[in-house]
Amino acid sequence: MFRITSYIFLILFTLSAQAQVKVSGMVNDTSNKPVAGVIVKMMSEGNMLAFTTTNSQGEYSLETKADGKTDVRIEFSHISYERKQEDIDIQKKILKLNIILTPKTIELKEVKVRANPLIQKGDTLSYDLASFLGKGDVTLEDGLKRLPGISVSDNGSISYLGKSISYFYIEGLDMLGGRYNLATQNMPAEYASKVEVLRHHRARKIDEDEESDAVALNVKLNQKAKFRPIGQPVAGVGVREENLIGHLGLSGMMFTDTFQLLGVIKGGNHGNFGSNELYDHYSNRPSTLAENKLNGWNGGRPPLGDYRYISNGFGTLNGIVKLDSTRQLRANGAYSSEYSHNSYSSSTLYMADGTNLAIGETFRPMTRTNEIMIEVRYEDNNSNHYLSENIRMFGLLQDNECHVTTTSGSLSTFNRQRRDAESLVLQNNLYSTIRRGQHKLSVQSDISFLRTPEVMMKMNGIHQSGQSTEVNTNHNTSFQLNLSKKWKIDLPVSFKADYKLIETQLLYSTKDNNGRVNGWSITPSIDPSASWKTNDNRLYIGMGIALRWMNLLYKNKERRTEGASEVLNSKDTHMSKPFWEPHLSFRYTFNGNSEIGLKAELTNSSGDILDLLTAPVQTNYRHNSVASGVIGKNKAWISNLSFKHQIPFSYLSFNAGMRWQQGKTNVLSSQMVDGGSIETAKIFRDSHWKNGSANFAISKNCLDINTKLTFRANGGWGSNESLSQGTFITTYSTNYGLDGQATIAPLSWMEFTLDGQYTQYFTRWSGHNNTTNEVRTYAHLSFFPTSQLEIRSNYDYVRSQISEDTHKDFSLLSASVQYKTKRTIWKLSLNNLLNTLHYSYTTYSVTDRFTYDCNLMGRTIMLTLKITN
Amino acid sequence: MMKTKLITSFIFTCVLTLLAQGQTADSIDVSRFKAVYTYKLNTLDHENKPITDSVAMVLQVGDKVQKWMTRSAYEKQVHAEEVRKIYTNATREEIAPHLEENAKVFFMHIPTVWTNFPEGKTTTREFIVLDKFEGVGDTRNIQWELSTDTQTISGYPCHAASAEVAGLTWNVWYTEEVPSTSGPWKLHGLPGLIIKAEDSNNYHSFCLNELVMEEAVITYPQDAKYVKTTEKKLIEQHNKIFSNKKFATNPPFFIDHSKIETITILSFTNPPLMEINLLPFCNTCHVLREIEK
Fold first, then answer.
1. Angle between helices B92-102 and B2-23 (to 10 degrees)
2. How many other β-carbons are positioned within 10 Å of the β-carbon of residue A442?
3. Searching chain B, which residue's CA lies closest to the CA of residue A42?
4. Is the peptide bond before A103 cis (omega within 30 degrees of 0)?
5. What CA–CA distance (Å, rounded) separates B273 from B96?
6. How far is CA A471 from CA A291, A428, A499, A519, A725, in A?
7. Chain B residues inside the 8 Å CB shell of A644
């Protein structure tokens, strides 16, 4: 036994000894002095087997296993000497190799290190945009979509950790206000060096000590984008459905330390070319009473695909001047003109007298809109005083047609509808704050004038017209006392006074219904509140009770004539009622990267003057609306809980939120369907509603493989009460959605995106159940044969439930080739390659089911050239 | 106005004194090249808000010794005359950035390190509150795990490697194109210069941003005020004082008032700094992220 064991050990020892190679020696220079710090590497077939360095006597020793290795050599390298290498014979287990190195003069390469992708300083995250950009990215918006925690919606709205940004700065200046799409969609991504996310942002320096959950974005520019005018012409030509299409555009911009200018002029008949660049993310043009009551017809918007044939043109000029370190003057102007048409059909299932009534309709909406906007803003933003003065003007001219073919059973009718509207809105906002020691005094004054001289609607033989005028004023004075570093008291007093007038006229056959409501709404209020925060600002609690005294003084006149008979009604409505509205907010910051917040409030609101418009109003060829004549009163309890967490240096962000609302109103919505006609009204009866929702999102960037992963989930539940065909019903609805997205560029020549979404809706009422679900996937694949060339394809697939046992599949395929040179971007786009011409989907409204089939634009080929400088 | 002049004059005197100390320093080697790194430290400020501190560091690499110090310390050592001119002719506004750069040593707790000095040893010098310490220990034999991952950084083809060094795991990229086993801080021992290094917690990172062939003296200033100790004890003392929660919010609490010789208040810097016994100091500091245990 001992012999066998010894034999095995002997074999193992021999094998082991065979595998070991030991190389040692000395390294000297040409004057035979030892060289220390020489790197000695044993290499085989390009792989390093072992390495060491020489000691102060120039000695080294290397030992490694080199089984089966061939072409083994020893390399000697030192910063001050020529590199040297010697082949060795590994069959000799122990080798002695002395080397003499020759001195050399070396030159080191110039080092250009890319900036750190992310720097965090307090509430500011500063992203080095170039570290995140993909090869095919062109605009700033393309770059923003790559940043961790940031998402950009289809209309260009930017949000961070689920919260929409409230300010968009370029080099610290807010030139565009809410119309920041003009910058994100026209500015080349390469012009931005850094993108800063400013959390807990306070735009007013005087509010540095105020609690804020606002998020702002600041774009820092490269030197090459500053101090010189930049112009970018763009032109495109193509063919769609055998028609020639094209577009032309020019964007120009200039940025200096004290002055910024951005102008865009674009036009074409190419679908959505530049159509959302003028979108205002903060405040759209306020709509007037007559516009709200006598709406146009622009329905049939499918969630996916190009569906509107648009010919549009717009021009805008925006500038801001920094007068000194605190004062700025900003001016914005825009004019747009758009003609669009589309078509869709719908199948509506109404519950009428216990049976279902089906109506099929085919719509052909056409809209021609001309809009103008001018805004001037002056701001003095000092840490001891603040003043802003803002004047805005909006003008609107709109023609709208929507001819409808109706099918009910075997009966088919053609209905004509036409609407003309024009409106003017003027607004003035003044805001001033001064600080005296620890206390602040603010004065705010908002005045707006809204006028619609006339809305004319013709629906078959029905003529409906209306006009409205409003003057709204709101004056607010607030005194803030800082009792200590922790305690603060706010004492705002406000006075709101609005004058409103609306007149309508409905002419039908021999009937003439005129309605006129006008009067004042006067609401003084106080909102004393107190806040407390810890010295380290980790915990914040704010609470208060607003007391509002609402006074309504409205006159309602109604005249109904039919033939020779005439009925006159006149009614004065006086309401004087105090409301109290407690509110509470709480925030706890675990550290600078995690926080939890809660906001809860009780709100009271009243319906507006339109509740008193008891004269019938025809809003489309088969829909007649009658108001209750009673001012609606709504009471709601709203609470929001949110949690945000970011680990910036792992490029990970997470946010979750919950929202609960419940309320009561003193009127109940009612719907009566009679044949093909619908009458909606509000009746004087209490109704209750509740809804809750929850959502979370997680986003992670892996910079090493250029990947961004995002996962979102949301769910909601709600209940609502209404009257349908005279029957009181409670409707319950539940929905949830899941969305996972990955944009991956594992190789330098390839990038792909995969996005999968699943949504499901349930509605339940009086023993009836309805369910719809939808699966949507989006995939994009790009190849980059060279750094300038991108070959890209996009594929959308949607499977949506149309009815209980019917699903419809929908696919869209597009492809493009983009070639970038130093000064030009060429792009050949092939859209809707599968020539998919319909998109179907179903929605529910209380007891009714609406199934839409929208017509889409056909196959399109487009060649675009953009010139950059 | 008189007060302003007095303070400015005092600062000049302090700087000149520091420069004078640099001039009498002993030369221990001559550098072959100089590597400038950006050292970024992700930490928390005195209000526990996240903050990224950043400072330029210089690695002087000689045939025998490597020295690691802040760039401002390097400038005073190698370009003393130019620095003297800047300080003597500058206004407060021009001086402020230099003083703020000096103060990074305080906020980021940065030592000066000589690798392989004395031979086979590593010498570390730093001031902890108002005490000057010098710790000497064996130069670490870092067991690097070499990876086959490669990427080009700053134009240099780099290989990846990782190792656990004094309690932290470091992921580094080194280039064989610069045949030197040196690297930032106390990282060394790879068959090429370390271009980029990050610890796995993402607290500390070093990234090369300048590489210059420069023959300049590597100095080891003689200063009897440094208390000699072992490297191990110095690390223990460093971590004990700076990781105390009170240090970030109230550093003056740790001052032994009997040791104060001079104080200069520099109200024109951001944040307002002071110099106590010619050493940068502030009323608040940033939270320590231990780099070694």
1. 50
2. 20
3. B191
4. no
5. 10
6. 16, 11, 5, 11, 38
7. none
CA distance B1 to chain A (A): 26
Cα end-to-end distance, chain A, whole Å: 87
For A482-537, what is each residue's pLDDT tens digit? 888 889 999 999 999 999 999 999 998 888 999 999 999 999 999 999 999 987 77
Tokens matching residue A701: 């960037």
Q: Which residue of A has its CA nearest to B157?
A: A109
Inspect the interface and report whether the beta carbons of A111 and B208 lie closer than 8 Å: yes
Query: What backbone torsions phi and psi does residue B7 show, to the nearest 5 degrees?
Result: -65, -45
- Sequence-ordered strand ranges (E) for A199-294: 216-221, 230-240, 243-255, 259-268
**Type of residue at A358:** A
DSSP classification of residue A5: H
Residue carrying structure tokens 């290094």 = B197
CB atoms within 10 A of CB B96: 16
H or E segment to which residue B227 belongs: strand B227-230
Q: How confident is the model at residue A585 (pLDDT cuts 50, 70, 90)?
A: very high
| Residue among B54, B61, B156 minimizing CB distance to A109 | B156
Helix or strand run (H / E) with residue A159: strand A158-160
- Element (DSSP H or E) covering residue A183: helix A181-184
Q: Cα separation of A61 and A43, whole Å?
A: 15
Q: What is the pTM of this model?
A: 0.70
**Chain A within 8 Å of B50 (Cβ-Cβ)?**
yes
* Helix, strand, coil percentages in chain B from 3-state DSSP, rounded to 5: 25, 40, 30
The answer to whether residues A790 and A823 touch, using CB atoms and an 8 Å cutoff, is no
- Secondary structure (DSSP) of A452-464: EEEEEEEETTEEE
CB contact under 8 A, A108 and B212: yes
Q: Closest by alpha carbon to A51, among A75, A35, A83, A81?
A: A75
Nearest residue of chain A to residue B153 (CA atoms): A113
